[in-house]
Amino acid sequence: MHHAPSATALRSVVLRQLGPALIALLAFPVLTAAPGATEADELKLLREQIRALEQKLLVIERKQELKDAAAPPAPKLTLNDKGFTLASADGANAVKLRGLVQFDSRQFFDDPGLTNNGFVLRRARLISEGVLAKNYSFQLVTEFGGGSVSLLDANLNLAVSKALQFKLGKFKSPVGLEQLQSDAWTFFNERSIASNLVPNRDLGIQAWGEVLNGAVNYALGVFNGVADGASSTNTDFDNEKDLVARVMAAPFKADAGAALQGLSLGVAGSVGRGKTAAGRTGGFRTDGQQTFFSYNAATLADGRNWRLSPQFDYRNGALGVLGEYIVSTVNVRPGATGAKTELQNQAWQLAAGYVLTGEDSSSAGVVPRTNFSPASGTWGAFEVTGRFASVKVDDAAFPLYASAAGSAREASSIGLGLNWYLSKAVAFKLACYRTDFGFNAGAPAVSTTPVLRQDENVFITRFQLGF
Predict the structure, then answer these.
(1) Torsion angles phi and psi, residue 19, rounded to 5
(2) What is the phi/psi pair of residue 40, to 5°?
(3) Rounded distance between C-alpha atoms, residue 231 and residue 152, angstroms
(4) Which residues contact 195 (CB under 8 A, 6 or more apart)?
(5) What is the mean pLDDT of residues 321-330?
(6) Which band of pLDDT confidence, cut at 50, 70 and 90, is reported for residue 109?
(7) Contact criterion met (CB below 8 Å) for 433 and 460
(8) Cβ proximity of 269 and 291 under 8 Å
(9) Percent of the chain predicted with pLDDT > 90
(10) Contact status, residue 196 vs residue 284, Cβ threshold 8 Å
(11) How far apart are CA 413 and CA 195, in angstroms?
(12) 4: part of which helix (H) or strand (E)?
């Protein structure tokens, strides 16, 4: 195999080929300027001039070689369906720009008197990620959807090793299993109603990592603390913090080909203290994003809160299944004064997906073997999904802390969906949900909340661009 000569080698060849001619040209004035010189004198003078110029050429070549060696390698520029990446030649430093856009249509059925159908720009995000000096990585996520601009994530990660890393800033609290998955790659276009009982994004510091060759991963952190279903407002000037922990084990990970190789079992939880109205949930929402439970405006959190969530995730080829059970407690008062009561709310979900076209199911998304292309006769990948979920509010919440007439005590949901992955970056999701409501014994026959006067039946479509 022949290789093209380097730029330095080419320069060396050119200089050596042209050197004698250049030397003779430079020496000509000297020789002609010496009348009466003998032939021996001329040859001697010419040899001296040649040696001097050869030395100069060698010096010039060496300087150029050193300059080439000192020049840094050219950076690598990549643009594909995973985003735009600019990286140093050695990969130690990189910046990646990504985006996520989700355009939804919500169509509700059997909801007389409600005007809740329409199109929604569910998410529109600009995502910046990067790595510095191999061991430091960062993430910035700005949200433009929902009619306002907000900073969802802003964090720095320090990797001491795979077994020990530290994450600081704003990111997802490691409690809910489905909540930790990317917003782009959940089974359904909306997370289950069980996710109402776990925190979303919070400010804090977390130690995390993988041990036993990746068979066990853990997270342990201290956070400002947020209510169920809430995210941090980026400020928290009190002394009450939450301790959050999670451990997930894949006991059969090393058993190649085993039916249980893709099984992960874990438990997560948090403990802290909540105060004021910010310490209790602002409301629990249905799959259609309608509020079915909220506390009275005067109700305040005051005291210890804790959560516990056993959970599992299973992947076997085209099949994916996840499940989680959540218990969340909060201490509340009916106002600035009054008796304090600990309420215990519970939720669970079981969700599954099967990729009809045979690609692997993954919490990081389905990657089609072929992209959708009418010209080529390829259709991408198709996945069918199903889910059951339930939320039960502590009966002691009524009527002192929440209105029995305006809030449901229980919501049970069933969902069916079809996901079409046209490419890694483009997806079209269809899902229908039915949610049945249950009420406290003291609730009137007709709820004061229009949403709760009938069961929720909603059909949600989503066009998604994620790269």
Answers:
(1) -55, -55
(2) -65, -40
(3) 9
(4) 176, 178, 179, 229, 349
(5) 98
(6) very high
(7) yes
(8) no
(9) 75
(10) yes
(11) 13
(12) none
> What span, in angstroms and rounded, lies between the C-alpha atoms of 79 and 99?
13
pLDDT digits 0-9 by tens, 391-409: 999 999 999 999 999 999 9
Residues 6+ apart with CB under 8 A from 313: 177, 248, 263, 264, 320, 321, 322, 363
Strands (E), 224-340: 242-249, 263-276, 284-285, 291-293, 300-316, 319-333
d(CA 116, CA 123): 18
Which residues in 212-234 are b (16+ Cβ under 10 Å) and which e? eeeebbbbebebbbbbbbbbbee
What are the structure tokens assigned to 382, written together?
């198709």
- C-beta of residue 173 within 8 angstroms of C-beta of residue 200: yes
Spatial neighbors of 18 by CB under 8 A, at least 6 apart, are: none
Residues whose CB falls within 8 Å of the CB of residue 275, separated by 6 or more in sequence, listed in order = 238, 240, 300, 301, 302
Residue written as tokens 């802290």?
272
Alpha helices in 89-186 (DSSP H): 177-180
Type of residue numbered 333: R
Contact 410, 438 (CB under 8 A): yes
Instruction: Find out whether 232 and 203 touch, Cβ atoms under 8 Å.
Output: yes
Q: What is the pTM of this model?
A: 0.82
Cβ within 8 Å of residue 269, ≥6 positions away: 175, 244, 245, 246, 306, 307, 308, 309
Backbone phi, psi, residue 56, to 5°: -65, -40
With a pLDDT cut of 70, the percent of the chain lying above it is 91
CA 454, 459, 465, 467 torsion: positive or negative? positive
With H, G, I as helix, E, B as strand and everything else as coil, classify residue 54. helix
Whether residue 433 contacts residue 307, with contact meaning beta carbons closer than 8 Å, is answered with no
